[in-house]
Write a structure and sequence with these properties.
The active site is at 44 (proton acceptor). One of its GO terms (molecular function) is hydro-lyase activity. By secondary structure, this protein is an alpha/beta fold. The protein contains 9 helices and 15 strands. Strands 8, 9, 10, 11, 12, 13 and 14 form a 7-stranded mixed sheet that branches. Strand 6 (136-145) and strand 7 form a beta hairpin. The longest helix is centred in the first third of the chain and has 17 residues, at 18-34. The two termini are 16 Å apart.
């Protein structure tokens, strides 16, 4: 049967707190569903927030008390999905972990909220989030199927630059691809978060699992991002979805601005600190959904074209991935696997069985 599916990326920004951001996620997902979207990607750190402009009061060899207070507020805004610091893998996915007395689920209810939104809208949701487990924060992506609930979650294995101060390193075992079927379309989905996409071996670990939908939530709004996405699409013969936040300084959560650098007296805070650039790329490296700039999904609805509402929407044909492998499969016929080997600790690189 035809392997065509309508997919989208949401250029959405984190709001003041988790409840308001979750409410926005539900509205944006419902809007996307009304436009025929069956799978929707939200940006890196969408839930919990990307702490752009923050230094948390730190310098080499020094910590300021206000920075610890700022981290406290950031920690409190993060999502508790009920997982463990080491990552419980399939036991977490399958709800085999113990639950506290008097509770019906682990965590703060965000997982259950996302599952309900996916079920009600019939949209597969993938979203970036800041996850707290024990005393550590992780930058993560969670996959939520409308009929089966959460299918998996992965944590960023290499936080970038000063992100390393506030986020832990996730286990490479979480690079495991997930499989699902939507309207008879068979999907093998993996994700690389922001600058993980600059890691050739990490990309290869996803290609090796035969992903046909490669998710790249990001915080990078430079014009160099699209060429990287096009490289990945052509290199992996896979569809690439990338979502970024678009945000002005005065739209940052108050826990950032109250302790952050003071604005120039002449500035009203209306300048962009991230202009977006969310896009969709095909398996020959061609742009299927042009990057959108200086528009966000919050506060906009019933707008056409969808790009004006902060959505990039396109129909994709997953058989294009196989068409592309006529002349290149970097995990198979083109890999020279008799000469080059890749192993990842705790991860089976074979394509998952369907």
């Amino acid at each position: 049967m035809p392997q065509k599916l309508t997919v989208a990326v949401a250029q959405a920004r984190t709001l003041e707190d988790r409840p308001s951001t979750l409410t926005a996620l539900k509205r944006i997902t419902s809007d996307a569903a009304s436009r025929g979207v069956r799978l929707l990607l939200f940006p890196e750190a969408y839930l919990g927030g990307y702490p752009r402009t923050c230094d948390f009061g730190t310098a080499v060899g020094a910590r300021a008390p206000h920075g610890r207070d700022q981290f406290l507020r950031y920690f409190q805004s993060a999502v508790d999905l009920g997982d463990t610091p080491a990552g419980a893998g399939d036991d977490w996915v399958e709800r085999k972990l113990p639950v506290a007395n008097g509770k019906n689920y682990r965590g703060d209810g965000t997982r259950e909220f996302l599952e309900q939104v996916a079920k009600e809208t019939d949209v597969f949701i993938a979203t970036g989030l800041i996850e707290k487990a024990g005393g550590t924060l992780y930058c993560s992506v969670v996959y939520v199927d409308p009929s089966r609930g959460v299918l998996g979650k992965r944590r960023k294995v290499m936080p970038t630059a000063s992100e390393r101060l506030i986020w832990g390193q996730g286990s490479p075992s979480t690079l495991k691809a997930i499989i699902t079927e939507i309207d008879g379309v068979r999907l093998t989905i993996g994700a690389a978060i922001c600058w993980e996409n600059f890691m050739p071996l990490l990309r290869q670990s996803l290609y090796s699992q035969n992903v046909n939908l490669y998710l790249a939530p990001t915080a990078d709004a430079r014009d160099t991002w699209l060429p990287l996405m096009r490289t990945i699409g052509g290199e992996g013969r896979t569809f690439v979805l990338s979502a970024n936040q678009c945000m002005r300084y005065n739209e940052l959560p108050s826990w950032i601005t109250e302790a952050g650098p003071k604005q120039d007296a002449s500035s009203d805070g209306s300048h962009y600190i991230s202009t977006g650039g969310s896009c969709i790329v095909g398996p020959l490296g061609e742009v299927r959904g042009d990057p959108i700039w200086e528009v966000s999904a919050e506060g906009t609805k019933d707008v056409n074209p969808p790009s004006k509402a902060g959505l990039v929407i396109t129909e994709i044909d997953l058989e294009d991935c196989e068409r592309g492998r006529l002349d290149m499969d970097v995990a198979g016929s083109y890999s020279r696997n008799d000469a080059f080997k890749l192993t990842v600790e705790g991860l089976d690189l074979n394509p998952p069985p369907f």
